[in-house]
Amino acid sequence: MIRVLIADDHPIVRKGLKTILKDIPDIKVEDEAGDGLEVMEKIRKTDYDVLVLDLSMPKLDGFEAIKRIKAEKPEMAILILSMNPEEVFGIRALNLGASGYLSKDIALEQLVPAIRRVASGKVFISQVLAESIAQNISRGSPKLPHEHLSDREYQIMIMIAKGKSLKAIGAELSVSVKTISTHRTHIMEKMKLENNAQIVTYALQNGLLT
Questions:
Q1: Which of residues 115, 135, 155 is at a domain's end?
Q2: 131 or 164: whose pLDDT is higher?
Q3: Count of domains in the chain?
Q4: What is the pTM of this model?
Q5: What CATH number is associated with residue 15?
């Protein structure tokens, strides 16, 4: 039996995932969590085989959660289930220790085989992500400006590029507007950009919003 913990800040999403998995004989949803800190609390009390984790989690975002989980429970498989496109966040999640990355757009079709695959110790990636990884390997060129950003900076950069205000980003990530503003300053310094419009242009030119 594969023991699963579902972590997503939207109750309707958690309910939908549980409905999908309800009648699968070899998979059991043991529990659920609504924010990153709750995820950490639950994995410290119970052993799960697979964590199905959304990246956009309040209190502790998905990237930071992956780091902490792999430090404390390295044997736990983490399957990222996100609205963010695989080619944008997938490689970063895998590099941090996630076992797979699945877009919510195709979750109905691939969720069960993805859970089974990561539970067996293998990696699950879509064709889109596989092609993105192959392109990065074959490119062999110096890092692009956005590749110098930290995981949190990269996440915020994408949110800015999508037109979200600093206030909205702060609310979504459960941090202050001042903190987001500081991250924005660091992003522009590292990428040698001057304003939000240039961030949007850069993201579009490099296919980060596809």
A1: 135
A2: 164
A3: 2
A4: 0.70
A5: 3.40.50.2300
pLDDT tens digits for range 11-25? 999 999 999 999 899
At 50, list the tokens. Answer: 């697979």
Closest CA to 35 of 10, 2, 3: 10
Count of H helices and E strands in the chain? 10, 5
Say if CB 172 and CB 56 are below 8 A apart.
Answer: yes
- For residues 73 and 129, membership in a common domain is answered with yes
Q: Which among 79, 105, 135 is the end of a domain?
A: 135
- For helices 62-72 and 151-161, the axis angle rounded to 10 degrees is 160
CA–CA gap between residue 36 and residue 132 (Å, rounded)? 28
- Supply φ then ψ for residue 123, to 5 degrees: -105, 135
**Distances 11 to 18, 34, 35, 104, 121 between C-alpha atoms, Å:** 11, 8, 11, 15, 28
Domain extent at residue 86 = 2-135
**Model confidence over 61-92: pLDDT tens digits?**
888 899 999 999 999 999 998 887 666 678 78
Domain match, 128 and 157 both: no
DSSP H or E stretch at residue 52: strand 50-53
pLDDT tens digit sequence for 53-62: 998 888 888 8
Angle at alpha carbon of residue 115, lines to 112 and 118, rounded to 5°: 145
